[in-house]
Amino acid sequence: MAVKLKITLKKSPIGYAASHRATARSLGFTKLQQVRFHDDNLVIRGMCHKIRHLVHVEQVTEEQV
User: For the structural domain made of 3-64, what CATH number should be given?
Assistant: First the structure.
């Protein structure tokens, strides 16, 4: 079973550093409360860690997506 990350943008990146806004954009976020599913790998985890104050991350299996 493949593990995916369910990432939800909970807070606006407006007012934060440009690199935080760019990270949120590169994860695919354009609006608040959007949900994106990404493969669980170190690159995505690092991006989530960088903007951990803006997002909520859950681990889900392939069947739950």
Answer: 3.30.1390.20
Q: What amino acid is encoded at 8 in this protein?
A: T
Strand partners, 8: 35, 56
Alpha-helical regions (H) of the chain: 18-26, 42-50
Would you tell me how many other CB atoms lie within 10 Å of the CB of residue 9? 21
Please write the tens of the pLDDT for every residue from 4-23.
Answer: 999 999 999 999 999 999 99
Q: In this structure, what token pair is assigned to residue 42? A: 């170190």
Beta-carbon contacts of residue 4 (< 8 Å; ≥ 6 apart): 37, 38, 39, 40, 59, 60, 61, 62, 65
